[in-house]
Amino acid sequence: MIRRQFLGLLFVFLFIAPAWSVMFAQAGGGNIGTFSTGNAEETVDITSGQHAAIGFDLTRNTTITSSSFFIKPTITGSSVGAIDIDANADGVPEWAFNDTGYGGFGHQTLFTTGNTSATLPINPNQGAVTNPDSPPFYLPSGATASSSSLEIGFTPTLVGGFYSTGYIHAVDKGDFNNDSNVDFALLSRTANVSTGSTTQPGQSTAAAFRIASYDATTGITLSPWVITCANATRIMAADINGDNHDDVVGYAPSNDLLCIHFTNTTSGGFEPQVNVTHSSTIIDLAFGDFRGNGQDVMVSIRASGKVSVDLFSNRTSTFTNLDDTTIYLSGTVNSATLTHMLFAHFDGQNSQPSLIACQANGDADILFWSSTGSGSIATGSSLSGVSSDAIVGDFDGDQDLDILASTSNGHRSFTNNQGLGWDGDSHNRLITLTNATILDYDLDSSGHLLIPNVGTVDGNPATTTGNITAYGFQSGWNYDNRVRSQSTEVFEPWTSPRAIHFGDMDGDGSIEQLILAGEGSQHGVFISAYHRIGYDIDKDGAVDVEAGGYAGNGSNGLSPLMLQDTTGNFTTSLNVLSPGLPYTSDGYGIQMAAMNLSMHSITEGVFTFDNLDIRYVANFLVNANPSLSGNLSNVLNQQMTAGTGTLNIPLHINTTSDGSVTLFSPSVAYVDGAPNIALPPTPVLTLVDLEPDRVFIEWQSITDFGDDLLNFIVYRSATGQPLSIENPHGDTISNNSLDTAVQPGQSWTYWVQSVHDYGITSNISAPLSVTVPYPIPKSFIPNLTAMDVPDDEGGAMNISWSPGDESIVEHHVFVLPSTFDDVSGQTTTITADADATSVEITQDSTGAELVDGTAYYVAAIGVDVYGNASTNVTAIGPVYTRNDTGLTTTLDVTYTDFTQNELSETVLLARTKGLGVSAHLHQAGQPVADATLTLTITDDDDVFGLDMTTNETGHASLTIDALSSLGAIEAVGTMSLSVGYDGDEGDDQNQPLLATSNTQDAYGTVLVTITPDEPLPVQSDGSFETLLMVDATDSTQSAYLANLAVDWSATDEAGNQTDSGVAEARGNELAVAGVGAYDGRLTVSLSTEPPTFYIPGMTASYAFASAPVTGDNQSNTTDETNQTTGPTFPDTTLPATVDCGTATYEWDSNATDVGITCTVTNPNPFAATVDFSWKVIPGTPPPIELVWNQADGPSMTVEADGSVDLTFTLVRNAPTEGMFPGVQGEGYIITLTCLDLGDNGCDAMTQPTATTEGELQWTLGDMPVQIVDDNPVGDETEGAMTPVLVGIGIVIALIAGVVGVLYMRSNMDDDFFEDDDDEDYYQEAMDAPATTPGSKALDLGASKSLDELKNSGKDLHSDAPEGLASSPTLGSSADAFEFGATAEDAIPETEESDEEEWAEEEAEADDGITVDEDGTEWWEDEDGVWWYREEGWEDWAVWEE
Hints:
By secondary structure, the protein is mainly beta. It contains 7 helices and 94 strands. An 8-stranded mixed sheet has the order 79-73-74-77-76-75-78-80, covered by helices on one side. Strands 11, 37, 38, 39, 40 and 44 form a 6-stranded antiparallel sheet that branches. Strand 66 and strand 67 (926-927) form a beta hairpin. The N and C termini lie far apart (161 Å).
C-alpha cells in the first residue's frame, strides 16, 4: 500500500514540477502597461518634425517576449499626413502609414492612384457596362467617418450652350451632310449679312438661313448665312434632287415663292438658289418622302378641298404633279375648305409619312400614298377636333406619333393605335400649345409636354427671365393621356425661351434641344440635351444621389452638371459599408479597403471627380513590420543592455505635416535575463553555376552561423543600382541560393545577410556581380530561296525559307549587291517575325532601292529571343529583280511590190510576181536582234507564212520571187500583208518584249497585155474603130478578163483630146470606137480603185495612122520670109514598129537551129532606149524556147527614126515529145523610152514611154514517121507509095483546118458589131462570176491517154458540168461558147454551110472531144467527170473544181 502511494506521489511530482518552474520563472519577469511618460494613453503634438519625448522604460538585463501599442488620428485638428515610427533610430521604421493612395493619417483626400482628381467616361449606349464604377479611394477597414464630401461633375460629349445668332424666326431639321445625324436650318428674316469692304465694314439685314450641326472634332458649328427669299417666313429641309443630302427650301407664302438651295455635296455649301413659283391655290405645304421610295416630294393642301403631290424636276426646275385628290364635306359632294395640315411619320420613323388635312372646324382626313398601280393618294380614317394649334408627338411612349390639340374648354388628346385607328379623348384643363413640344426629354419612355414661357422681358439678357415647364401625361379609369396639372420639372436654359426644337445631333441616342431664346441685343439658340446623372454608393441598383438638367463644359455659358450630397447620405453610407468591405494588409498590418461608387447617366459624357475629403477615426496596432527586425519586440531586445535599473527606448515619430496623434494601450512583456546577442559572421559569397537560365551562389556552412540562426536574406539589384534592404529578393534556410528569374544578358549583383533570434542580423556580405550568358544561337535558316516577284513593275524580290529552330524569334535578311560570308558589323532593314517564312522587299538590307538587272546576293539568319545570332552565312545568288511589264516594241515595215510601188497607196501583188519585205524591229529606239518575224500573206481564206530573222541592227528582209511558189494562191482582190513579232519573255536581266505587228492592205491584180494592130486606122472623118486584144499574162486568170473595163481617150497630133469613153472586154477583145485624128494617139487607162488589172504604168498609148500620102509635095514655108518652120517636140512617145523574121525548126533535137532577127524601128523624132521582155515567163522552161541574145545589155539605144536588130536563138531544154508540130509563138513587149540628150525635152512629155506588143512565131517541123516493116520482102512500089499518101493526107487536113478557122473567124468578126450579139454577150459576161477559185493542183496520177479511157469502158456525154466555163484553166476565150457542147457550138449561128457540116463531122469523128480557143481539149466520161488536155500534152488529166 505504501509502495503504491509513493509511486502516485512521484507521478504527481513529475507533472507539477515543470509548471512550478514556469511559475518561478514568471515571477522573475513582468509587464509594462505605460509609456515612458507614465501614461497608458498619450496625445503627441508634432510641430516642425519635433515632438515631446515618448517611449518605453525597460528593465535592464531582461528579454522582451512581446510588445505593442495602438495609434490613432485625433478627432480634431489637422492631419499629420504620412507618418512613421522609428524605435531604434536606424532609419528603418517599425511602423509606417505612407503607402500610395493612403492619404493623410485620418484624412483621405487621394484616390488609390495617389492623385487628387480622376475622370470616368460613360456611354450608356455602348459596351456591356452601362453603370461603371468610379475611381476608388482607400479607407481603413472599420474606420468611422466624421465627415465626407466629393465633387462630381458631368460634361456631355456634345458640349452645348448659348450661340448668339440674332433673332431666329423659323427652324427645321434635316441631314445636310449625310452623316445620319440631325442638323438644324435656322431662318432669320433680320440676319446681319456683311456687305462691306476692307475700308468700310458695313452690315445689312436680309432674310437668310444658316445650318447648325455637330462634328466630333469641332463640336457644334454654325455655317455662314445664306440669303434666301426676301419675304421668307418658313424654312424647310428636304432632299429635293434625290442625292441623299437634304436641301434647304426658303418659303415666302405671300409671294407663292419657293427658294430652293441645293446642297453642294463636295464643298458642303449650297448652290445658287433656284426660285420656283407655285400655284396660288396652295394653302399650306410640306416636303417629305410621301411615297416611301427615298425621294422627297411636295405635299400641299389647296383651295376647293384639293390635296396634291408634286415632284421636282431637276431638268426643268419645276414641279410636276404626281396625283391629287379632293376632300369633301362629310356626307356631301361639296368640297371641304382646308385650313391647316399635319404632315409627319405618324406610324414611326421607319414608315412613310402621312398627311392629316384639317378644316376650320377641326374635322380632319388622314391621307397616305398607295403604291397600287402607278401610285396614287389614298384616304384613310377621319378625325374631329384637330385645332390649328395642334402639335404632334409621342406622348404614350409606343414609338408612334400622337396628336394634342386645344379646345375651347380644355384640350383633346389623339392616341395613335396605328393599324387599329385613333382614339380621341377630351379633357377639361385649359392649356396653351403655342410653340409647345411633346418630347421624352429624360428618356424614361414617357412623353412630356414642354411649354416655353418667355417671362417678363426687360431687354437685359443678364437678368434671366422665363423658363420651360414640363408636364407629364396621365391616364385613369375613364380618361387617357391627359396633361397633368402639376409640372414635373422646370428648366431655365437661358433667358426668355420661346420655342423648342429637338433632334439627335451626335447620334448617341440622346435628344438635343435647340431652344430659341434671348432678349435685348442678345438673341440666339441654346443647344443642349437634358442629362440625368447619379451614383449608387451601396450598389443596390438604386441611385442614392442624382441630378438632372442641361450640361456643358463651362464654355458658351453652360457649366457641367454637378452631383451634390445635400443630405449627408455619403458619410452615413461610408460608415455602414466600411466594416464589411474587403481589404488588403500591408507589411505593418494596416488593413485598407478600396471604395467606389456605381455611376449612372442617361447620356454620353465624362464624370470628373475632385475634392475628395473624408475625415475618419481608426485604431492601428503597432507591432509587426516588414523589415528584418520583424516586430517591435526584436527592436527592443536589440537595444537591451546588462546591469540594473531602467533602459529608456525613445519612439521617434516622423510626419509630413504638423498635427497630433494619439498613442494608447502599450503592452510590453519581459522575462529576466538579457538575450544572448552576438554578431554573426558575415556571409562570403561564391558563384557556383552561371547559365543562361540560372545563377547559383553559396556561402559558408550553416554551422558557422550558430544555433540561433533563423534564415538568410538574399538581396538582388541590377548592376550599378544600390542595395534596397526594404525589397529583399528572397530568403533561404540553406547556405545557397538558386536564382532562375534571370535572362541572358542581364547583369545582377547579389548580397546575403543572416537573420538570428531577436532580429539580430549579420553584416551584409560583399557584393557578387554576374552577367548572365547568352545561349549559343541556332541561327541557321534552311531552304533559303530568292527570286524576282513575278508580274510586277520591277524593283521587288521575294525571299522565302523553311522554319528554323524554335528558339528563333526574328529573322534578319541581308541583301547586298556583292557576295559575302559574314554579317558581323552589318545591320539590315529587312526583318521578319518568328512565324514568317517569306518576305517581299523593294530595298536591299542597307535601305537602298533594288535596281533591276543588278546582281544581288541573299543570306538570312535567325535571331533568338536574346537578340543573338550567328554571323557566318552562306549567301545565295546572283538574284536579279526585273520589271515584268512588257516593253512596247515597234515594227517598221516596207514592202516593195513587183511594180516598184507604182501605186504609192497600195501594195500590188500578182500570182506570178514577187514581193520584197524589209522590216525593222526596235524598242525605244534600240534594235532588237535575233528576233523571228513572220510575214503573213492572207488571200481570202488562204494564209501563207514566212519567217525572217533580225540582224544586229534589228533589220530583216525577205524576197519572194513569185507568190505562186507559196502554194495554191489566187492573189486576186483584197489581200492583207502582216509582219508580226511574238514578243520575248526576256530573262533574269532583260525585261520582256511585247508582241507587235504591222499590217498593210494589199491588192491582188491580174496582169494583162493589151495588143493593138498599129497603127490604128482612122477614117477620113476622124472616126475610128479598132479591136485591142487583151490577154492575161497568167493563163490561170483569163476568166477575170470578163470584168475588164478601160477608160480611153483619143488625142490629135498636138495632144488635144478628140474623144473619150469606156470600153469593156468581151472575150479577149476590147472594142473601141470614137473620134480620133491622123497621127494622134489612143490612150487606154486601167482603174486604180481598185487596181483589179495591171499593165505597166496602168496606161498604154497607141498611134493612129498617118494621113494618106498625096501626090503633091508641099513645103512648109512662110509666105513672106520663106523660112522653114521647125518641128515641135512631141508630147507623147510613138510605139516602135517591129518586123520579125521566122524560122522552121526540125523535130529532131540533133538538127542545126538557126536564129531569128527582129528589126525595131523608132518612129519618133528623138532617140530612145529599147527594152525587151517576154509577156509570160513560165515557171518550168518548155522543151523548146527562144532566148533573146542580150549582147548589148538589157536595153539598147535607137536613134531618131532609126532601127536596131534584136536576135533570138532557139534553146532545146528537153525532148520535143509531147509538143505539137506547126506554128508556135511567144508574146513579147518592146518599150521605147524617150532618151533625154540634155535638152530636158523628155521631162515635159505626158507620155515619155510607149510599148509595142507582138508575138515571135516559128514553126516546129513534123515528127518523123517511123515505119515498121512487118514484111521485109514486099512490094517496093507499095512501100514507096505509103509516104506519099500520108503526106497528101496531112496536106489536105491542114488546108481544111486553115480554111475552117478563117471562115469561123470572119463570121465572128462580122457578128462582133451586131447589136443582138452584143446584148447576148453582155448577158453572158454579167452571168459569169466576178472571181473564180484559184487554180487547183492537177491529179497527174489520174492522167490517162484517150485510148486508155476508151478501153476502160467510158462512154462519151454531150453535157459539161455547170461552171466549167469559168475555169481559169480554160481562159477567157471560153466565154464565147457553151461548155459541154461541141466545137461548132462556139461559133455564132449562121446559115448552113459546108464548113459547118464539116465541123460537125469532124467533132463526131473525134468522139465528143471539144477544143477551146486556147487549144485545150475537153471530154466528159460516163460518170460526168470532165477530162482535159492542154496543147502539147500527151496524156489527159481530171478537171477538179
